[in-house]
Every structure is written in C-alpha cells, then in structure tokens.
Specification:
Layout lengths: L1 E5 L7 E4 L9 E10 L2 H8 L2 H6 L4 E2 L3 E9 L13 E4 L2 E2 L5 H4 L10 E2 L11 E5 L3 E3 L8 H5 L1 H11 L8 E5 L3 H12 L4 E6 L2 H9 L4 E4 L5 H8 L5 E6 L4 H9 L1 E9 L11 H6 L3 E4 L7 H11 L8 E6 L3 H10 L4 E5 L5
Parallel strand pairs: 11-12, 11-14, 12-13, 14-15, 15-16, 17-18
Antiparallel strand pairs: 1-2, 1-4, 3-5, 3-9, 3-18, 5-6, 6-10, 7-8
The structure holds nicotinamide-adenine-dinucleotide and zinc ion (2 copies).
Length: 348
C-alpha cells in the first residue's frame, strides 16, 4: 500500500510502498478515505527539534482521518464496530493499567502513545487501530467526509471550549488557527453571549469572522482592552480559551479577565515563560491545561453538535489528492489557510 513516511532522520516525507499493517485480535483495519494535516505533521516534515526528540524513523505519519472498516479482529464485538462502518479514531493510545486508565479517565493516561508519532499513523491507504480507539459515525449520510476527517482537532476545540460553562458568558479566544476558529463556532453555538478572538494574521481573522464571532481583533494593531470597550464589557471576559501557544497572548488574556474568570489552555508554548501570578492569585483565576480529547465524551459532544447544526465547513479551505502531499503541506505551513485535507480515496 501507499503511505506517507518519514523515512530518514532528516527533513522531508516520502510517498512509499509499504507492507499492509497486521490486524490483531482486538484491532480493526480501516481503509483511509480522507485525512487532515496538523501542525504536528508539519513539525515532522520539517524535522525540527520536537520531531527529532519524538519520532523514530521510519514512521508512517498522520493522525486526523476518516475511513471505512474493512476487517475486524476475532475478539472485537461487532455490535461496537463492524465491517462497513464509517469511522474516525482517537489518536491517543492509552496504557489501560495506570491509575487514571483504571478509573476510566483515559484522557489522563500517563503513558499515552500518539498515532503517527509513537506508532504508525493514518497517512496511508490502510491503518490499524485498537477497536477501543475507534469512533463510529452513526449517521454517515448526514456527515461531510472532510469534517469527519478533522474530528481529532475538532475534539481539541470542543474539549477546550466546553471545559467551563459558557452559556451567557463573554468568551475571549487567543489564536484564530483552525482550532481557535472551531472553538469560536462551538462557543457561539453553545450559547456564549459575546465571542471575541485574536490573531496577528488578517487571513485567519477573516476566517473567524466567517463562523460568526462578535469581534476579531488583530493584536498587532489594537488591544484586547479596546475590544472590551467595543463589546460593551464592563468587568472583563468570563471565560478564556488560549489557542495560540504564545506567551504574550496568555499574558494579555490574564489582564482582561473578570475576577473569578476561568481559562482553558490548549496552545502549546515552545518554551517556559513568565506570567503575572499576582494577578492570577488576587483575581482568583482558574487556569486549566487541556490535552487531547476526553474518551469518549468529547466525541459524543462533537457528533451531537454537528447533528444540532454546527457548521464547520468554512474551516476547511484546501483539498488535495494524497500524491500532491508536498503542495498540501506547503499550503498548510504557509498559514494562509484553515484545515487542509488529503484525499486517499482517489488515484488523483
Ligand atoms: N493540547 C493539545 O492537545 C493540542 C492539540 C492540538 C494543537 N495544540 C496546540 O493548539 C494551538 C492551536 O492549534 P492550531 O492547529 O489552530 O495552530 P495554528 O498554529 O494554526 O494557530 C495558532 C494561531 O495563533 C496565531 N498567533 C500567533 N501569535 C499570536 C498572538 N500574539 N495572539 C494571538 N494569536 C496569535 C497564529 O497566527 C495562528 O493563526 C497550537 O499551539 C497547537 O500546538 C494543542
Ligand atoms: Zn492533530
Ligand atoms: Zn494509562
């Protein structure tokens, strides 16, 4: 089969012929239909410091996908997942033995292995996953395949956005990347009062406007404090969603929260940085880190949000056949885009 492989410990990716993966007794074999390109995949292609520490070549990369089940292992309960099901997959493989796993808090597993990072991934014609990592789309005819392909980052957005009650609350999102924009759409859909989002990219701010944010702020030109005035806020934002990984974004967020405000932080900073802890303490701010998705409560929420009319289609801005992966990766790395999809179902 064809697969997108990090063959050697150096920059670049190769579309290679590799053996079909083996389906173990608890696994399912999935024929890949579409995949989404994530920042992680860009790090691996570029072979930056993070990739050098975390990837052992050769490795099939990729973790955002939708596909069709073509085989199930002998121990899999076919009432849970069966041949012909349309599925996406939870890309965090958990150990099942640590305290959190045993308590059913699998998203808090301390031994998580990442699909397409610590084991072979989804940028291939077929992939194998444990049946316990598969999410079956129960209403496939109503689901856009491109949206199904990005359930993994959509789940990051939902997990973060629904971490704190935001009905009737004023919400500040820092970073209008694909995940920030999806979180904004979720926050509006779920009943937030005002949703403001920041970025330094005019393209990304326009993308956020297309999902109906109340205010999109270019923080290279104006401040979040000015945005508060424009929105008629008197005491600051109630809920903050940090989705840029930038120190200055978290600092400015902290300075614009109401007392007792709650911040969920998804953005991954590349290094240590300082914040105003005095302000955090005296304003009694809650700061919560978010990693991945809750298994499988977040997945349930995603399906229900889409059934309820949440529209993510503006977030998908590029579509390529898998053979054009280099052009697709270049567009994703350029930043003037939302999510970029690779189609594995055609010979394009
Ligand atoms: N914790 C997790 O499980 C998890 C999972 C996926 C992604 N992430 C992280 O979440 C973040 C969002 O992911 P994404 O795919 O949307 O990333 P992205 O890089 O596409 O988006 C980040 C956005 O932040 C913007 N930005 C840069 N400086 C800014 C500033 N000062 N203020 C506001 N915005 C600024 C960038 O222009 C960009 O549009 C990234 O940091 C990513 O590494 C975390
Ligand atoms: Zn991802
Ligand atoms: Zn565990």
């Amino acid at each position: 089969m064809k697969a997108l492989v990090k063959e050697k410990p150096e920059a670049g990716l190769v579309l290679a012929d590799v053996p079909m993966p083996e389906t173990g007794p608890n696994d399912v074999l999935i024929k890949t239909l579409r995949t989404g390109i994530c920042g992680t995949d860009l790090h691996i292609r570029a072979w930056d410091g993070w990739a050098q520490e975390n990837i052992a070549a050769p490795r099939i990369i990729g973790h955002e996908f939708v596909g069709e089940v073509v085989e199930v292992g002998g121990s899999v309960n076919t009432q849970d997942v069966a041949v012909g099901n349309l599925v996406s997959g939870e890309g965090h493989l958990v150990c099942g033995h640590c305290r959190n796993c045993q308590a059913g808090r699998r998203h808090l597993c301390r031994n998580t292995v990442g699909l397409g990072v610590g084991r072979d991934g989804a940028f291939a014609e077929y992939l194998v996953l444990p049946a316990s990592n598969v999410w079956v789309h129960r209403n496939p005819s109503a689901l856009d395949l491109d949206v199904a392909a990005i359930f993994d980052p959509f789940g990051n957005a939902v997990h973060t956005a629904l971490s704190f009650d935001l009905v009737g609350e004023d919400v500040l999102i820092t970073g209008a990347g694909p995940i920030g924009v999806m979180a904004a759409a979720v926050a509006k859909h779920a009943g937030a009062r005002k949703v403001a989002i920041t970025d330094v990219s005019p393209y990304r701010l326009d993308l956020a406007r297309s999902v109906g944010v109340d205010l999109a702020i270019n923080v290279a030109e104006s401040s979040v404090a000015e945005a508060q005035t424009k929105l008629g806020l008197r005491e600051g934002f109630d809920v903050g969603l940090e989705m840029s990984g930038r120190p200055e974004a978290l600092r400015e967020m902290l300075a614009n929260m109401t007392n007792g405000g709650r911040i969920a932080m998804l953005g991954l900073p590349s290094e240590d940085f300082a914040i105003d802890f005095g302000r955090l303490v005296t304003s009694m701010i809650t700061l919560k880190g978010i990693y991945g998705r809750e298994m499988f409560e977040t997945w349930y929420q995603m399906s229900v949000l889409l059934e309820g009319g949440l529209d993510l289609s503006p977030v998908i801005t590029g579509r390529y056949g898998y053979r054009e992966f280099d052009a697709a990766f270049d567009e994703a790395a350029g930043g003037r885009c939302g999510k970029i999809i690779l189609d594995w179902s055609t010979e394009k």
